[in-house]
Structure formats: C-alpha cells, structure tokens
Amino acid sequence: MQGRTTWLLLAPAALWFGIMLVLPLCFIVVFSFGDRGPAGGYVPAFTLAQYANLPSRFAVFRNTLTLAPLGTLMALVIAYPLAYFLALQASPRWRTLLLILVIVPFWTSILIRSYAWIFLLGGQGIPALFAWAGIPLPRLVNTPFAVLTGIVYGYLPLMVLPIYVSLDRLDKRLLEASADLGAPPFRSFLQITLPLSLPGVATGCMLVFILLMGEYLIPSVLGGGLVFFIGNALVDLFLQSRNWAFGAAVSVSLVVIMLITVSAYMWLMRRLGGARDDVSLM
Amino acid sequence: MPSSTSSAMNQAPAIAEFRAASKRFGPVLAADEVSLTIRRGEFLTFLGPSGCGKTTALRMLAGFEAPTSGAVYLDGERVNDMPAYRRPVNMVFQHYALFPHLTVAQNIAYGLLQRRPRPDKAEVAAKVARALDMVRLPGFGPRRIWEMSGGQQQRVALARAIVNEPKLLLLDEPLAALDRKLRREMQIELQTLQRQLGITFVLVTHDQEEALSMSDRICIMRGGKIVQTGSPTVLYDEPISRYVADFVGKSNFVDGIFAGHNKVTAHGTTFTGRILCTPAIGSKVTLSIRPEQIELTRDGLEPVQVVNRIFLGEHTEYLVRHDNMGELLVRVSRQAEAAEGPFDPGSEAFVRWAPDAALILDQD
User: Which CATH superfamily is domain A33-273 in?
Assistant: First the structure.
C-alpha cells in the first residue's frame, strides 16, 4: 500500500521530467555525435567532429565562464549588505517597504528592464551625466561591462532573498550571547552571523550562477552582438545556422560544466555545514 | 521602600550596585528607581511575575540595556555606557543561546578566545576540559550542540559562562525549559557550583520554589519596583505585604481594618497578630496565616467545616470553611494526622494558631 501511494505521488512529476527533460537530453546527446545535413538539421552518424570543433566557439565559453562567476560575485557583494540591513537593521516598516522594492522589478519583463539599461548606459544616459560633470566615459553599451551590469541588476533579487531569509532566521540572542562572551560587534559578525548565513549565501550564489550560465536575453540586448553567451550561440546554431549536431555538442558541454560546478557546490556545502540538514539548494 | 535585612552577607563588599536605576521602553517603565547592592559571593535572586522588571534589571547588569536614569555600578565602576562585550560578567540565557555551528568545546572556549592577547591554545583546552568536568559532561567536547539533550545543553550554557570566571554570573530563568525532576537536580547543582566557585550569582526567576531553595537573598519585584529584599527565611516569615506573602509560599489572607496596637477587625471579629507594617489606625490591612501554622483539631474554640482533603504524601492539605474568615487552607503533617485521625469532608473540626502566627501586612 505504502509503495503504491509513493508511486502514485511521484508519477506526475516523473512523467513530466521523463518526457520534458530526460528524453530531450537523450536526443541532444545522440545528436551531438551526429553530423550536419547538407541543408542543415541532423544526419545520423557517430563522430567526435562536433566536439573537436568546440574551440571555434571559444569566445562564448570564455564570456560565459568569466561573466557568470563575476556577475554572481558582484551580485553577492551588493546583495549581502542589503540583506543584512533588511534583516538586522531596518525597522519593520522599512523592511516591508524595501522587500517589496526588491521584488517589484519582477513585475515587469526582464526584456523591458534590459532595454531600459540601453538608454541608461547609452549616449543620452549616464555617460551624458558624466560628460556634463567633465568626466568623459568610454562607450558603455555593447560592452562586457553593459552585460555585467544587466545581469547583476537582473539577478540581484534572487541573491538578496535567500540571504535575507537566512539572516532573518538567525536567532538574535546568539549575537547577545556573543557580545556577553566578550566579542565586539564586528567580531560577532565574523564568528556568528556570517557562518550562520552561509547556507543562504550558497543558495543565492548557486541560484544566480546556474541561471547566468544559461543566460541569453541580457547579452543579446546589452551586448549588441559583441558579447555572446553560450545561450546566444545555441540560438544561433539551432535557429540560424541550423547546425544541430554542433549545437547539441555545445549544449552537452554546458550541461557537463553545470554538473561539475553543482557537484562541487554540494560537496562544499557538506564540508561547510557538517551533518546539518538545513543546507540545500533551496 | 525595600527593607534590607541583616545577614552575614551584608558584611561582604559590594560587587554590583543599582542606584535609582530606571529603564523606560516607550510608555513602559520596566525598571522604576531600582536601588540594590549585590554583595560579593552571594546568590541573589530577582523574583516576580513576568513583566515585573526582573529581566530588565538583569539585562542592565549584562549591558544589554542602559538605564534611562540612575546608574549601574560593577565592582565600583559606573558602567552605564560600557558595552556588554567589555563587562566582566557572563550570562546563562533562558534558551541557552548556544552557537549551533560550533561544537560543545568551541562554544565553551568562545569567551576565552575573545580575550586579547589571545590566550595559549593548551591553556584554553585545559580550561574547557575543567569546565566540562565541573558541569559533569566530561568528554562531550567534540559533540555537536544539536546532539545534546535539553539538560545537557543547559550544562553547556553554564560551562560556557563559568569558564570565563566572571565577576557576576547572570542566570535568566535558566531552568524554565527543564522538566520538574531535572530542575530540582540542577537547583542543587547550581547551588553547589556557586559555593565551589565563589562567584556571585544573580538569578532571575518567577518560580518561588527555585528562589527559596537556592538564594542567599531574594529581591521581590513588582511593576518595575523592588518590593522587599531579604533572605528566604525573612521573606517567608516576615513579608511586608500581602503581595510578598502571596508570592513566597502559600498563605491564607483575611482582609480587615487596622484597629491599633496588634488588632485587626474583619467580618465583625477582632483578630490579634504580629505587626509587620506601619499602618494608620482605620487603614486596610491583611491578616496572613501560613497553612502549616494552623492546627486542625477535634475540639477547640474556632469551629470550621471540612470541605476537602488532599493527600500529598509528606503532608495533607485540608480546605476548611470558617464562618468569619471564609475558606482556609490548612497543612497537616503526617504525625499530626496520625494522632488526630483523618478528618472527613463535611465533618466539623476546629482550628487554632499561635497569636504570633497571624501576620498583619499591607494589603497591597
């Protein structure tokens, strides 16, 4: 009885994941060993040619693998103090207001918000302001800087919220205990607050990093065709060049890179958190 | 005004002092001109119901609250503005507040490791081991906090505080979360520990039994004010008001009017008693008689009707109805009951008490 209930409960999700995730993934893996047809598409074959061709797309891998971690790091640096302020310093009224402000951007499409940055970073935007103050800025739009700004802006809430939750859950009496035992405020932060908020930090970082690795929209809007991510390359290979086999190989590489980083994260978390069970992805 | 009673402790020098210390939280006056001297080496307890200001008083000693007016002194130094982390006091928190990401040993070593210059590693380890021995948890150092039971966590919290050899050990309802049997054990252990270490203990509790069994002196609080300070015996035998007598032990109260000298009129009868307050003639007072001071007999002068008999093992409690005084609680020892035989509910009996046993108190 117990066994059948378990299966019934799991069946919808298992079916969904089976058809929508595992099956396509199998296709991708098979395609990645195939060949491009004369008019694009896919021709069955078994060749490693597509993988051998990966270096031709070195730029997108480099962009993704530098800007995704960098963006994650910058989001963390900006989000932590904000989350700290929200959870530990702000009065309840301010806290609610600011939390809403953190979430509000989600009400508008990321596409529109990214376009807004074109105007902010464009000739009539921030550079004009600086020029007026007598400080000439180099071109900002269509640069890695613009893409970085866009992704940090776009994913900041996803970093703020898990850190906020972990800091909010922190038992404030622990800070009193720390002070009582002789630790000044900053040392209490380093010894108590920071370690106990690490699960939130790790969750935020992983959430942002995973999504950034697959990012497509922000680079295409703010990169101006100059700063491509792996996601942009995939769109190009599958929809424009119709080189499905090579596209599949790039996809598989992305999946492998993600598997390695997520496994590293899990391993690190187990090391950090000991046997505690409240450390997880979400 | 608080009345300090003389005891051997009064000769010891002061380790801490409240001088008309008040603490206001918005409209609430949590501590109202508290003045009290805490003697070196004593076990002092703040006793009162929740919201009486006892925790605020403790937190002013710890440095978590600064007095709004008045002053707090530690070892002769005015510490109103001294942050908690500079004060040579340590606290055992109500819910222990142990650091969940550290081991038992790391929790205990925490205070020692905050000292500058940093103490020697071997010395810290030795002190931690000794503290663990002292709270009877030898070898528990490498354990994780969540692997420990409530009683064990309580001991770790105690060890984490005493390892620093504070000038004052503050205990905020430390036993509230333990079950009755464990609480009794810990009371004895705390008292023993206090004698061994010679550290001044300041305890906050709402549990009168806890206060009576452990303290050298008890400070009864109400509405932010100290009502009476004294040894457990003094508070029990010579409370200044009905509030104190009610809070420390059980008692029977009869409200009446002070008729001068040692007389109280209540319900048309005149009672005599020992006078422990300074009432004006005609003012409202309360007569208080402890249940164990009343004798229940087969014949006498004050007839009562037995309402209920509750057998409690070491003694028996009777609820009896007196025509003038209403219901009275009478505690009869086993020997007395064996001699007189048990009284059946509904039967007639008589009560009597020594004239000294009835106390004339402030009605407040």
Answer: MetI-like (1.10.3720.10)
A45 contacts: CB under 8 Å, gap ≥ 6? A33, A34, A35, A245
User: B74: domain range?
Assistant: 8-237
The model's pTM: 0.84
Give the domain-ending residue among B216, B237, B258.
B237
* B196 shares a domain with B77: yes
Q: How far is CA B351 from the centre of its chain?
A: 31
Looking at the structure, do residues B260 and B223 belong to the same domain, yes or no? no
Residues B218 and B133 in one domain: yes
Q: Do B114 and A177 touch (CB under 8 A)?
A: no
Report the run of H or E that residue B270 belongs to, with start and end: strand B269-272
Complex ipTM tops 0.95: no
- CATH code, domain carrying B199: 3.40.50.300
Asked whether the beta carbons of A139 and A61 are under 8 A apart, the reply is: no
Contact of B85 with chain A, judged by CB distance below 8 Å, is answered with yes
pLDDT averaged per 10 residues, chain B (length 364): 44 90 95 96 95 95 96 95 96 94 96 94 96 94 93 95 96 89 90 92 94 94 95 93 90 90 86 86 90 90 91 90 89 86 89 90 86
Question: Chain B: nearest CA to A102, how far in angstroms?
Answer: 30
State how far residue A86 is from chain B, nearest Cα, in angstroms.
22
